Automatic annotation (TrEMBL), chain A:
The organism of origin for this protein: Gracilibacillus oryzae
Keywords in alphabetical order: Membrane, Transmembrane, Transmembrane helix
UniProt name for this protein: Yip1 domain-containing protein
Entry's transmembrane regions: 34-57, 77-100, 112-136, 156-178, 190-213
TrEMBL record, chain B:
Gene3D superfamilies named among the record's database cross-references: 2.40.30.170, 2.40.420.20
Descriptive protein name: HlyD family efflux transporter periplasmic adaptor subunit
Main location: other
Origin species: Gracilibacillus oryzae
InterPro entries attached to this UniProt entry: UPF0194_transport
Keywords: Coiled coil, Membrane, Transmembrane, Transmembrane helix
Annotated Gene Ontology cellular component terms: cell envelope
Domain of life: Bacteria
Record bears the keyword Coiled coil: yes
Subcellular location: Cell envelope
Coiled coil ranges: 169-196
Regions crossing the membrane: 5-23
Length: 222, 410
């Protein structure tokens, strides 16, 4: 299926869903998969190239030479791009496998679902870019997320990050996954919902943990 | 229906967030996105005043006392070069005896001055500088005039005082020569008077060019511009307040590209003309420094003048565009941006001296100031120009740490 059909999922999800449900064999998913992985690699690399997320390197600007400073940033960018790659693989394949275990639906169809999910995630990240460079907002205080509201109630960074990881995009993804799975599977409604919500909660907690340990992790590792 | 509600709630949600962003006064974490940054420069700063100026020679005016005699004729013309003792003009004396007496008296006075000068010189030459270890002041007098020498107290200083002594002697010898020349001229006038019975030829006491000659005999009827050149400029009222004697000045001749160094020797206190309606103009004299050589330079040449009003050596300097109103944005070593008020000093071209608020090791951000927020973490983009394989290869770089950082950062 071509890339623009991914957009169809957003615009006309129901018709598409019907087709998928009744399709015996899902077509070639590899092209889209590769495109998404590549896109993720590039987008994350691009974001890092702009400087997003490199706040940990900034303090060394007065300590090291400008050449070394820039080299540090280069490897940071590489690391970030690799993360983008790994991230894509996890979302596309690992999460699909999780749902496979839960619903026993055909794996390829689940991958299709995750492709749509991942595309939305990439869109969200792309939106983060101008928010960062023009409004000075980091990811967890995007106006699409609950991070801003959380900031008004607390100063604790990890709480802000937790709520910041719940965004409109995330909610749409939950809605989409629920719709998809419910349509295709005969599993009880509540089980589907629990599976989805559990997954997402787990991901928010993971993100929050990483945020919390950002600096400490680096110090511990090296 | 359900779709509509969802759509509206989503939009409302975003709007609420936007409103919160607008009213936020610090609760929402921000970052500063820095694309251009630099360390300040250390350089010497000068505040200079540029003026047009003209090279002048010292003008020596001569006057004619009509009571002494009646003018006969000029022996030179305007523009002539004259040396010392060249005849300038002649006049017929009114009264032989008075004139003769005057000249003789003058000669006598000169003789006295000459002999006293000669004895001063002799005394100084025979005076040896004592090598004492204590500061002492020595005085000696010649002909009721006291001369005092202050002697400083160490070996290098005694060389200095030897130099001072020689300098003193030289000055006095110069004076002596001038007096002798004057005496000779007067002697010649006397002889001429005695020979002709009524005419005296006045000769030039100066060497230079006749710059002004008035046939009307209006005083000063003869002006000789001598060869010692200096530079003259005109200062407006506001400018005069900024210039003081002693300031360094640069003199540039545009046509030849020659540059000389000089200093302001006199800022005239009285304007050329006093009028409520006209701007007051004050002349200012600049003399060339002693070591400067002037070749083929004539009075009347126009030059450009740069007077150094203020100077600050090894000042911390930033470019004008790097200042955000009255502050600079400092990228601190803890990764946080700080807006710092600075006190500005001398401005020159696009550079501004920072008197307080910034030191030379600090780093400042500039460019798009709207992206800088006070007391927020800053990040900088990667500079692809600086990325070459040689720079980034694993052996040279701390790559592991930063790669992992890239993997785990959120």
């Amino acid at each position: 299926m071509k890339r623009n059909t991914l957009l169809d999922w957003v615009i006309k999800p129901d018709t598409h869903l019907e087709r998928v449900k009744h399709a015996e064999h899902v077509g070639n998913i590899w092209r889209t998969t590769i495109l998404l992985i590549l896109a993720s690699f590039l987008i994350y690399g691009w974001m890092a190239g702009i400087g997003m997320g490199s706040a940990l390197i900034s303090p060394s600007i007065t300590d090291v030479s400008s050449l070394e400073y820039n080299t540090d940033k280069f490897w940071f960018v590489i690391g970030r791009a690799i993360f983008g790659l790994i991230f894509a693989i996890i979302i596309l394949f690992l999460i699909s496998y999780y749902f496979y275990l839960v619903t026993e639906l055909p794996y390829r169809k689940l991958v299709l679902m995750q492709q749509v999910v991942f595309m939305m995630m990439l869109v969200e990240r792309i939106i983060w870019i101008p928010l960062y460079t023009y409004v000075g907002l980091d990811w967890y205080v995007s106006p699409f997320s609950f991070g801003i509201i959380a900031s008004f109630f607390t100063d604790i960074h990890w709480i802000e990050a937790f709520f910041g990881s719940i965004s409109l995009f995330q909610l749409w993804i939950i809605y989409f996954q629920a719709k998809f799975l419910l349509k295709l599977s005969i599993l009880e409604k509540y089980k589907v919902w629990i599976a989805i919500i559990l997954l997402h909660l787990f991901s928010y907690v993971l993100v929050t943990l990483l945020t919390y340990f950002d600096k400490n992790l680096m110090d511990w590792w090296f | 229906m359900k779709k509509k509600i969802i759509r509206i709630s989503a939009i409302t949600f975003i709007l609420i967030n936007i409103v919160l962003l607008i009213v936020d006064d610090g609760k929402i974490d921000r970052i500063s996105h820095v694309k251009e940054w630099t360390e300040p420069i250390t350089m010497d700063m000068k505040e200079q005043m540029e003026k047009d100026a003209i090279i002048s020679g010292r003008e020596n005016p001569l006057y004619f006392d009509k009571t002494v005699g009646s003018f006969q004729q000029f022996l030179v013309e305007e523009g002539d070069r004259v040396n010392v003792s060249d005849p300038l003009y002649t006049y017929m004396v009114n009264d032989f005896h008075t004139t003769w007496q005057n000249i003789s008296n003058n000669i006598e006075m000169l003789d006295q001055e000459i002999s006293s000068l000669e004895s001063i010189i002799m005394e100084m030459e025979s005076y040896t500088i004592p090598s004492t270890n204590s500061s002492s002041s020595s005085t000696f007098s010649v002909d009721n005039t006291e001369y005092e020498l202050n002697l400083p107290d160490d070996q290098t200083a005694s060389i200095q005082s030897e130099l001072q002594k020689q300098q003193f002697i030289l000055e006095k010898e110069k004076e002596l020569a001038e007096k002798n020349a004057e005496r000779d001229r007067l002697e010649n006038q006397l002889v001429e008077l005695e020979t002709t019975g009524d005419t005296i030829t006045i000769t030039s006491p100066y060497e230079g060019v006749v710059s002004h000659l008035a046939y009307s005999l209006e005083d000063p009827f003869l002006t000789i511009m001598d060869d010692s050149l200096y530079v003259e400029a005109e200062l407006m009222e506001e400018e005069r307040q900024q210039v003081t004697e002693g300031m360094d000045a640069e003199i540039l001749m545009e046509e030849t590209g020659e540059v000389w160094e000089g200093s302001v020797t006199k800022v005239h206190e009285a304007p050329e003309s006093l009028s409520v309606n006209k701007h007051s103009i004050y002349p200012v004299d600049i003399e060339f420094n002693e070591d400067q050589t002037l070749e083929e330079v004539l009075p009347g040449y126009h030059v450009d003048l740069n007077i150094t009003l203020k100077e600050s050596l090894s000042a911390v300097v930033v470019e004008e565009e790097q200042i955000d109103e009255y502050s600079v944005w400092i990228m601190q070593s803890n990764g946080i941006m700080e807006r710092q008020l600075i006190e500005q000093g001398i401005k020159s071209d696009d550079f501004v001296e920072v008197v307080t608020g910034l030191s030379e090791e600090q780093v400042i951000a500039y460019g798009d100031f709207s992206q800088f927020r006070n007391l927020t973490p800053f990040t900088t983009p990667l500079d692809l120009d600086k990325v070459t394989w040689k720079n980034v290869k694993p052996d040279n770089a701390n790559w592991q740490e930063h790669l992992v950082m890239g993997l785990f950062v959120r």
